[in-house]
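Students often ask why we bother encoding 3D structure as a string. The short answer is that it lets us treat folding as translation between two languages. Here is a chain of 248 residues written in the first language.
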Amino acid sequence: MRLKDKVAVITGAASGFGEGIARRFAEEGAKIVVADLNAKGAKRVAGEIGGAAIPVAVDVSQKSDIEEMVAAAMEAHGRIDIMVNNAGFTHRNGDMLQVDEQTFDLITAVNMKAVYYAALAVVPIMEAQGGGCIITTASTAGIRPRPGLTWYNASKGWAITATKSMAVELAPKNIRVNCLCPVAGETAMLSQFLGEDTPERRAQFRATVPLGRLSKPLDVANAALWLASDEAEFITGVAMEVDGGRCI
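And here it is in the second language, the structure alphabet:
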């Protein structure tokens, strides 16, 4: 098992990519902290995983919630080896000038500031342990931005740059930092990305992906698993495209 006895905290783990990552990590022996704003969903996923999985209700836009999440992980398991910043938020595909300030603020809080809060909480723990791994779910939108999702695109570009800078700064502490850049997939945010979730819009989007389909949670989970495993011990600062070739 590639993650045997490692402790992974995963935000946004009650559905979509986060749930896929939680389940895949558990299959490989990790102890999972299923963290999500949706407390009922987090409890469901943790219950279905069983074993050492625990659910934690968390609003990642709030520093106190992040601190409580990390405290719960430490109380349950005594360490944190892997921090997955997966929770995300977007605005509906459309005119950048029509995105209200409240939505803009929530995008920056969830997609950007939460990464900062998580770093403040887990880096000292990982340093004391002798190392660790941080993975953030960014997006192809941060590499090849398209019209209609401007402020979301910008937040994911920030996540990629933050990943690379953190990787350089934390390398002496033996903390690896990487991010994943999935193409749009079967998650709750798909309708927002497409503007309108119809068979026609899906077909139009699939046509822009060389491998001809949307991403799946398992695609992202397998990429995250490799980055979190000892097989990737020399990999840091990478923005891994999980996109079927869309960014080419």
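Translate back mentally: The longest strand covers residues 175-182. Keep this in mind for the problem set.
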